[in-house]
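Fig. S4 source data, part A: sequence.
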Amino acid sequence: MPNADALHIIDAAGKVLAPGFIDVHTHIEGTIAKVPLGDNFIFDGVTTVVTGNCGGSKTDLESWFSELEQIGLGLNVASLVGHNSVRAKVMGSQDRPATPQELAKMKELIATAMKAGAVGFSTGLIYVPGTYADSDEVVALAQAAAEYGGVYATHMRDEGEHVIEAIEEAIRVGREADMPVEISHFKIDNKKLWGDSVKTLALVEQARAGGVDVVVDQYPYDRSSTSLNIWLPSWALAGGRKRIKERLQDAATRAKIMKEMGEMLDAKGFADYSFAMVAGFGPDPSIDGKTISEINQLRGRPKTRANEILTVLEIINQGGAQMVYHSMSMDDVERIMRYPNTAVASDGGTRVFGQGRPHPRSYGTNARVLGVFVRERKVLRLEDAIRKMTSLPARRFGFTDRGEIRVGLAADLVLFDPDQVADRATFADPHHYSTGFDLVLVNGASAVEDGKLTGNRTGKILRHAHDSTD
């Protein structure tokens, strides 16, 4: 290149330069210290993650942020403050409404987290103890975050049989707390309701037309991942592991639990647990990658629903397991992906390479969108996909210096070959990094160069600059 005076020249012919991808729905609290470079995210083009989702976060964000800064990060990190974590700190896992005093304590914790730089308030309303809170509690706590300009991010109370009511609750929180809403991993996870994304998306659009700023996020898979405990009735989870064991040891209570578990299967349109695969079970990793139906057979039991429920209860009694659930329709996935106000998000975490059988979304979310849904299936145009990974999430969470390529903004950049980018992680063999992202810059320094990690730790904590006068 004539007259070039750069120290480093990169040949980008035939490639796409995009802003670094922003993953607005992650869970990195438990593993980022083990994988501070964020390898699996960086190799997937992600330069910024938002954690603290689904109601689970660190409650002392100031201390945690300081710890991460001392470790040094390979990517940028922002965090929400989680309802479940705050409620557990104040009330434990009790199944009852909060008293006025307890509500005041939770508001104080949320305000402290917002002052420390939290970008908003998250709920996980299918999880203990958040599931025991009514809508009034959620609104009141969301208002505490709204005072500091925060976003309300919600894993809704239901994503199947009662999904309409759950969306309406999320909209109510946004309206009454006067704050933007992010509905997490938007989906239809009930086999009986496949196709109802037409209705749920219409409800979101109706809310937007009515003045509530609602957007959604989504991972590009038809399988979800969460705890096995969600298959117990919520009342049976109150009080923690000791109380769960006591209930399972009581014959009458166990029979009631088993009956309700069968009803839950019926409500979701499943005859058995063949759709539920173990992703990680500490006491016996040999069952990782196997479905509950397969594990039941390995234990020598006839293939009946009652026996499979017993197998579920045995695993829960030993501490529970992380699961992958094949409960969604690809038609719904593609329809939600086409919706203009859907951001791409993994719902994944930083992964210790080779450990467990996690959902492949932690490794391949963005590459899968670009390789499968843009290049192969042509569900999205490339430009639309990039927007869903960059400027849309940046605007939602107030990252005013990221999400676009402009002079003066942070130099978070991704260079990739649109004809070659691909996800390699599968459900059977998830520990594979994405390929095709030849160069990834985080705050102006290369995190990936020529397809290899550089080891640079130029990531930053992105603290929300709140606008409260408090």
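Fig. S4 source data, part B ends here. Residues 120 and 150 are 4 Å apart (CA to CA).
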